[in-house]
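Our preliminary data section would be incomplete without showing what the modeling component actually yields. Below, a chain of 248 amino acids is followed by its predicted structure, encoded as tokens that our downstream tools consume directly.
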Amino acid sequence: MRYLVLSDIHGNLEAMQAVMDQARGEFDQVICCGDIVGYGPNPNEVTEAIRDLKPLVVRGNHEKAALGMVDLSLFNPLAKQAALWTRNVLTAENREYLRLIPTGPIYNSEFTLVHGSLLDEDEYLIDRDEALLSLKSAPNAVTFFGHTHIQGGFVVLEDGRSGVLNPVIRQGAFEGELSIDPRHKYLINPGSVGQPRDYDPRAAYVIYQAEQQRVRYMRVDYPLQTTQEKMVKAGLPPYLIDRLRLGR
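Predicted structure:
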């Protein structure tokens, strides 16, 4: 099986369309690490596109925010403003779809799927020590996670050594690659489709070729000015608009 791994789309329709165009013919199944909505100007259109793909998906914290399932005082003021805007514009049908998305982790024979971590769906795995705690409970060699918007991940080797996975995909290049050794354990972050925070504004995703045990880290350009113009029209916070260009 070949999997298209998405995360943190955040209502960015242009970014999602660019990913789907570039990935066409490269996957058999879609999996999603959550945060389909939040921040971006097209939560309904992106949710409908995800529904059509019938992915294996776990909920993110922005799904919970959009449905009133989390205390928004835990969000920064800009994220709270965007979450309330998203909550107000979602259709009843899309709200129901988001409500039914399960909490991670989800396990299958080839990988594990979470939003934040194996220990807490809202945990940010930023540094190696945090990742090691999560990896200790990983039943599979590969766990996909999102939430941080940073493409890469972590690995624990069979002998106990550990490291950070930091794919360097130069501007002008569109792919990095990682070979999976099933003796080790990996936390793989596909990066954010709709709001990258690794100083590369291009939409990020992963193609996982399970039989070949190969992870392909991918980037693709998209017309982010179109997304920004929609955000301006919607009255979303200027900082959230500007950060798309900066990739942070």
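The first strand starts at residue 2 and ends at 6. Residues 2-107+170-183+191-246 form a domain with the Purple Acid Phosphatase; chain A, domain 2 fold (CATH 3.60.21.10). Preliminary results of this kind motivate Aim 1 of the renewal.
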